[in-house]
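Need tokens for this chain, all 296 residues.
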Amino acid sequence: MSTQSFRINTNVGALRAYNSLAKLNTMAQKAQLRLASQRRINSVADDTSGFNVGKSLDAKVTQMQAAQRNVGSAKDMLATAESQLISIKDMITQIRGKIADSANPVNDSSAIAKDIVAIGKEIESAFAQTKFNDTDLLVSTSSGAGSGFTFQTGASTSDTISITYGTDGTVDLVGSSSTSDSVVSGLSSEVASALDAIVGVTDATSIAALNLDNFESAVDDALGAIGNYTQRLDAKDQFLSSAILNSQSAYSRLFDADMALEQLNATKAQIGAQSATAMYAQLNFAPQQVLQLFRG
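Here are the structure tokens for all 296 residues:
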């Protein structure tokens, strides 16, 4: 027995056992808290640098998830414009078929002209009414296709894509012109002139004079641009999915608790605390042995 055990004023051995017991209880509580919260870092003090890095990653993930939603909205918008432009192209094809019919002398050219006018009116309606969340898609307005659409597609505010399919071709689809009957404004001069000619058809002579080449070229160019933008957005969507996954994986390594390891630590600390409690009791009782020195 150490001579220190005969010092009854300060029981150094018991104090050391108490310190060990306190440390083991702290270890057990920390492991149990991690098991309860399923998080390795429950306060900044647990891992200061890891906390800062993890919170930065968490912010980036939130921003990239918002950007991915923007990409989805942009793709939906383009799909809406594409669907209507395909419909317009089909109607141009119908007009071409009517023009071919008008060359047949046995057909009623007046009736054919009325059919063409009806198709032209529907094309005008398609240009004027095609919107995505109240935003014009096929005419030039302050917030429409002519001014372009800008979407943030990354965590940084500078990571954006500007979509201007209405003016990306050899022949513009949109512009500052309007049809003569004022049904549609914000179209290029080529498209506006073509629509004026279509809705102004009255007989076989005027039918034969229709020139749809520039009109159809504008539609084709816009469709091609939409396809290219959609491909770019698909690539950005795939990149964001991968970046979000990797960032969440890094965040998980920093913040998520290893449940098996923490269970092991909790059990180890609990067993150690039980042993330390028993030894603390014995060491706390040891100074009473000094009484034996006073027995006669």
